[in-house]
Write a structure and sequence with these properties.
Strand order of the largest sheet of chain A: 2-1-5-3-4
CATH topology of chain A: Ubiquitin-like (UB roll)
Oligomer: heterodimer
Number of strands of chain A: 5
Shape of chain B: globular
Helix content of chain B: under 10%
CATH topology of chain B: Methylamine Dehydrogenase, Chain H
Order of helices and strands of chain A: EEHHEEE
Structural class of chain A: alpha+beta
Number of helices of chain A: 2
Distance between the termini of chain B: 19 Å
CATH class of chain A: Alpha Beta
Largest interface: A-B, 21 and 21 residues
CATH superfamily of chain B: YVTN repeat-like/Quinoprotein amine dehydrogenase
Strand content of chain A: 15-25%
Distance between the termini of chain A: 42 Å
Helix content of chain A: 10-25%
Chain lengths: 97, 361
Amino acid sequence: MQVVVHVPASLRQYSGGAGKVRVECADATLAGVFDQLHAIFPGVVERALDEQGKIREHVNVFVDGESIRAGSKRGLQTPVAAGTEVWILPAVSGGSR
Amino acid sequence: MPVRPDVLLLIGTSKGLFLLDASGDLKNPIANGASVPSVAFDPRRRRMLAGKTSFFWGTGVVHSDDLGQIWTEPEAPNLRFPDDIDASIKQAWQVAPGTASQPDVIYVGVEPAALFRSTDAGETFEIVRGLWDHPHRPTWQPGGGGLCLHTVLVDERDPAKLTVAISTGGVYRSDDAGASWRASNQGIRADFMPEDQRYPEYGQCVHKVARDAEKLDTLFLQNHGGLYRSDDYGATWNDIGSGVPSDFGFPMVAHPHKSGTAYCIPNGDAFNRWTPEARCRVYRTANGGQSWEALECGLPQRDAYITVLRDAFTSDEQDPAGLYFGTRSGELYASNDDGERWELLAEHLPPILTVRAANLD
């Protein structure tokens, strides 16, 4: 099963410049996508997730247009299927600085 | 007053790293939303190291071997708790090169309070387990800035002897390169505790510790309320807070050459955290804290509601000493004569978190 991951501009130095990465994965969850992506571009995944494997506080991930923090809120257990598109994005935050 | 010809200033701010040299041209090699709360110049290999924290993408130590033009960032963040520790690094508060005898050793203090060590000049880091496993550690509490390990002193005479300071945990010492640690806070007050518990074994909110230029067992300490000196390597501490308008503040800087001379910048009290009487004054002792004198020539003396954070004050290695401090309101002041006269070197910067002087001669 192939999933497409969109890498934000600020992380493309860790994806060889690629903004769109096709990931082959067997596990049909977002966690499985990140596992496979880590094997290709660890620098992207280790900046989107902390060392506990949690999505960092000010990072948003969308699966087929839906935030994994909203809606069904299944986080890294959000299901994926062939053709799913995953977006990693910096959150809208930082106004206090 | 330009920066001295042999000095390059490293200015870490909440919005990136700035560099300033004698040319007066301010450079900004680290930006893009990253704060730089810690920075160091390692003279052993002329390497700059910066604790770079992205608001979004985590924290790590980056380095430059060409005085800040090109920065090397590891493929994956090089500061991370190991898998068996359920914690995530928020920020690198201190980058401290080791001794000349261990040229590849770098220490980093982080939030949540932990010590990391590199043995490859800052490329990779491992947690110092002895401190993380200390039985006091789970009871340390965060101060207003977070639970941070912000001071690392490595003894040039014996690199196995380490001193760290934690807000709030206090001072801890190790004589075995970090394998074991003991609290070292006897005599330091904790104003925020009940009256009969104000001198605990640990838990003080120590803000900064600096080592005397010659007497290496003598340490100066700025506490969250209280100025202290230890003459026995931190075993006991004596109050030296008489003669300053406030004994609350963040930084403490020892003169690079003159024993017994140290500087602090009083910062009101725990509530009004600005320079007392809205006058910006550096205080200097030349006798180990028996007395303090105000240094104010060239510094704003009215309507100056200034805060200088714990690592935003530093010295260079020259004689007379160059002294430099940055403010939360983005001004950078400098003195080229041990603090007698000051000038504004830069303004309108983002909030300044740390200042270090690279001695290039």
